[in-house]
Write a structure and sequence with these properties.
Layout lengths: L9 E2 L6 E2 L13 E3 L5 E3 L2 E3 L6 E3 L16 H21 L2 H4 L8 E9 L2 E8 L2 E4 L2 E4 L5 E2 L7 E5 L4 E5 L3 H19 L5 H7 L5 H31 L3 H12 L4 H11 L5
Helix pairs in contact: 5-6, 5-7, 6-7
The structure holds zinc ion (2 copies).
Length: 272
Amino acid sequence: MVNEVEVIVLRCPNCGALIKREKNKCEYCGAELILTSGGSFSFRFQSVCPSCGNINEKSSWFCVNCKKILTTDIDMLKELQKKEFLMRLKIKYSIPFWMMEKLEDDEFVYHVFSSRIKGEDEFYVVTDKRIMKRYEEVPLGEALSVSKPKFGSSFEVSTLDKDIVFEFDNALDCELFRANVKAAIENHDLKKKDIRVLLSQLQLGQEEKFKKIAMEKEMRFIDDLLKKLLDRYMSIYGNHRLAERKIKSLMKEGLSREKAIRKLAIKEDLIE
Ligand SMILES: [Zn+2]
Ligand SMILES: [Zn+2]
């Protein structure tokens, strides 16, 4: 008797990471998603990357095409990094050391499955370079096909000269591992890295860079605001000396030039 279990593994339409159906936000790229009537996720809002023109989900912290970091929220990036670090730690302790030893320094582990199957401790690992089952392994470049799940709880990865069977004790584990294998092969074929790889490469100590980006944004905003203020005074009084005088007197009260411009703009109802 075979139990038919329907397992739905959904992918983030922005970055491709696997996400739970109940979630409406991708934990890797930050995309906010809505479940369509067709049963897949779609973007809540779209935005265009200022660097390459790719369309991303608006809340995504980076461009999935050119990898440009689109957020200046340092705390959020730190939070993501912490999560990535903890994920690595968890993986490190769930893979036996003899298997860990085989991994290269820059090898990224997508997924680990460990369980007792038919009385044996089994470890299946999928990385951005290979798929491993205890002592056997298939480099991603050699994987020719991934079979459909058989009896809901096993599938095969075939190469030119061998097939490796991955067995599980339930359909959910099977489908999750299979989805990761397929994603790893697909990413490898496209020479595309998983978003989690990008996350792991985010260096701590980039605060300065992000602060600079945020500051440049602020400067552009202030320049624009000043232009609007001067235009307004020009249209009311015929010149903009009064605006400049008001800014100077606010600065005498101890405000920076930027803050003085902001304050005057608020008074003039140009911003809130
Ligand atoms: Zn995502
Ligand atoms: Zn881009």
